[in-house]
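Regression test attached.
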Amino acid sequence: MTTTTGGARNFKVVLLGDGCVGKTSLLLRYIEDKFNEKHLTTLQATFLNKRLNINGNRVNLSIWDTAGQEKFHALGPIYYRNSNGAILVYDITDEDSFRKVKNWVKELKKMLGSDINLVIAGNKIDLEHERTVSLEEAESYAKLVGAKHYYTSAKLNQGVEELFLDLTREMLERQEHNTQTEVNRTSQVVVVDDEVPVQSTCCSGHRSS
Amino acid sequence: MDGTYDEIVSENPFFLELKNEYANLFQHCLSESWIICVPRIGSLTSRVFTVEDFCAHLLVPSDELPETHFNTLTEKQVTVMNKVITVEVSKGLPLQSHILFEETFYTEDFMKYKVWCIESPLEPTKTTDDAVVSKEYLSGINDCIDLLWTQAAGRQVLDNIEQNVETFLKKHSNLPVAIGPLRDTVSELYTQCLQVTLQNRRLRDKSKSCKQVLENIKLSVESYMQHLLFDSIFKSICTSCAYEDAHLNKKIRNMCDIQLRDLDIKKDLYHTVPKAKQILSKIDTYNTVLEKLVCLKQALNSINKIDSSNNVVLLTADDLLPVFVFLVIKSGLPNWFSQLTYMKEFRFSSAGKCDGDESAFLITTLEAVIGHIQSGALTGPPDPEAYYYYESNLTEENLSCKQRKSSLTESISTSDTYNKEENLEYIFELIKANQCEQVQTILQKNQKHLQNLQNNEDNVLKISLDDLSNDEDDDSDLEIYHKLCHPLCNCKKCKCKISKNLLKTCPTMTSRDSHGLTALHVASIHGKATIVETLLEMGSEINATDLNECSALHYASSRGHQNVLLLLLHSGANINQKNIDKNTPLHLAVNNGHLHCVKAIIYFAEHSGRKININCANESGNTPLHLASKWGYEGIARLLIEHGSEPSLQNSYHKTAFDYAHNLRILQVLKSCTPNLFEYIHITSSEVKKISCESEKPTSLKLQNLTLKCSDTNDALKTIENLKLIERILRAISYGDVKLACFYMNIDYSAFIAPDKEKRNSLCHPLCECQYCKRKTESCTDFDVNVCDSNGFTALHYAARYGLDEFCNILIFNRANVNCRNKKAQTPLHLAAINNKTVVIRLLLDNGANINAIDVARNTPLHDASETGNIGAAKILLSYNPDITLLNATEKTALAVAKDKVHLTIIDLIDNYANKYANT
């Protein structure tokens, strides 16, 4: 799933969410550091690469945007298989989009178990006055499923970088943890108490290492 | 493909020195978030750097245009466009350098800074002439060959690969069809080729120095290998994907008239579609995965939109995917699934790499598109064009609501508002919702209204009188006159009412919408059999055509509504009608992969005796078989072949069905077009005659039969027809379909299903001429039941082999020769003995079969039964007094054969029989 080429880890991250919640804007904001769509070298915002170096850990993020329309929902598994992280985006002014996020979370947990790091992003906080999804609800749900919750605004460039950075850190942590347990496993020492606390609430059944 | 340069910047000497030796400058740089440019590792000539060197590589964003304009710390102007850095120099040309990649660094205390790895230093004096290979971007097979040739300084590497591929092909003349093993064998070859390549010293040295070069070499080797191998392996891939391809093609064909708007594609993307389609449809002309991927990428990149101020606007996945779905549907490629499988499974050079790279993304996108089409989530435009804009979700339930409402309004309001029923679209919708009765009443009413108007064009008043007196129940017409002040009123108001009635455009069965569709067309499109039936009863014109000259039959067959199709055929629709593209209904049914409709058309034509030209060509010269072969419909192709389709016909592009067959399975079906028949096409009738004259041996039975059939030695074609018929008969027999066989042989099957079977089975005596037996003999067919196929098998042989006693009976009554022999000189009795068909053995023997008949190997039926150990057969044969002393070609009696095979029961049986025989 993840491989290290030349010291860099490759992580695949998918963006999931209803149409019009601003998935693509988030991505663009992050990659090109722009909200304005001009001056772009790429024609499509469906696949983008970003190199990071976090404390000397080189990471190559491949970020895949997906189509949000309901009719393409069934194609989800084709896109998110083998991904290391998923960003679930909803629009804070649209309750329906939050419900979709819940569906996605359920599906991802079912299909990929705990092999994937999830973050939930409530986008468009620049439209705070039109908010329909309550802050408590969203945060308590995120906590329940073991995902971090962020408020973002692609327009104002708020929270976007933190979102991606934290996700990358988490993925790094998970990978290190995994390789560690793998090493432990080969030496037939079972480590039980060394779990990452973030995703311990849900689907703990998968994680009996 | 994405051969992007990579190096570990944090180990770059330039960067290290800046960080360690000039920590203050570095820290300052971080806090100001300046951009650090680091020349790539190979471009640095010296390992000694001055402060000026570093200052020249630190970019300070300008205040007005922070994205594109910078100043270096040495106060030079820098612009960035399209990943190229341009530095203004006081003298001469500006200095340029590519940005190879950008890396964002985060320090422990969450400081963030950006590093650009650049191709060459930003100082004029420090440029080097180190050959730049790192950014080499492979985009086609030529690039690959170029790389292997120039980097290895000679053709040797290429020759080596060629040699390897050649030996591989020789070794694997039959490549495995299953994808897994195929992939593995080819992967092995790839490893071999790569090994051979890296034996070249120059390439090895270069790849050691730079990882990027190694990646490119890998890719080149893979591509060159695929280039050489493609024809062989792609056939295998197509074969293993045959089912998926055919399934996908059927889905695609059935929505081929889908429009951009059906997929919710944004209007401002429309203009890019033709070009993207053109690019994408070339994907099958490329042999390598690399080129196919480049093609995909180009197609995707060509989809872009331009906003009002002529700027390129970014496309999101939401916009892109529907367009891509549309492109795949419209591309006209018959093997998308195979293409996908090829790209997915044969990318060896990137095996083990993360599958998150761009190629993986492109392939995933294609997979998603194909998955989407396959899932059936798309159902094409459900409606004919005409009432597209009249989109309403008129389901059965809310129709009844509407009905109630409309009846309500009808009763309340007067008829001066336009009634819904006057709308052709409304009727079409009723048809769609299968509201048969309503459609009928409306149409009838309208018909009547029309007639009335026509009959009494001059005198409107007369109608009213007539209506009043005769037509009590015609409400709508009547209503008007009831509403007049008095029947003969002439006031303005009444006149207006009458004229409105005249102006009323009431749709009837002959009314057409803007595309020339009648009610019958619409009913056929939606497969509403009851409505079609009603409309036909009401006298709809059955062969009416729309703007595309399509009849209702065309629509029924293209949409796969078998019941409607049969209904129309039985009501006398023209089975050979051609539409504007000269497609017959058969063409359309085949094109859209509706096997059951193809069957219906062919069998109907056969039964009703209507001639159907199975090799009919459409506008582009394609026969139905061309289409079946192209889209990979195996079942349909087989059916067409069985019914005389000719695979060697050429279309307008001089292509035969063989040329279109893209997988081995279809090819097999086409070749199965009875190869023996195939030969005969080329034998002129005179030759046939000559052969038959020369050969008197039983092996030439077939040919004798042939000449017998075309006694006037005219057309070989007739012979072929006959042979095909025989094939069909024999096949029907082998399936045990007695009825069908009888039908083919022109035997009245029902005559043999007499009320009391007993009586029929036992004739009074073989030569009886009583009334009952006579009737039977009269019902004999004029068809020669003793015709045989290329191996000399007659219908009776087959019937005996498969144990169809009833059919044996029928054949024998129709003067079948019970002692006829096939090429091996076997009689039906031999076959029945071999297959242990006891009832048939008895039947044959009762009807004069020779119990001691010998075949080519001089075996009698008893020999066969002993050989196979068929106890039942041996018992019965022995009860008919065979000669057990006969020797076969190996000088053995039946008893000896049984002893050889140790069939104890049969040895016993023959011994007993011998004893009894000796005693008597």
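Expected vs. actual: identical. The mean pLDDT of chain B is 76.
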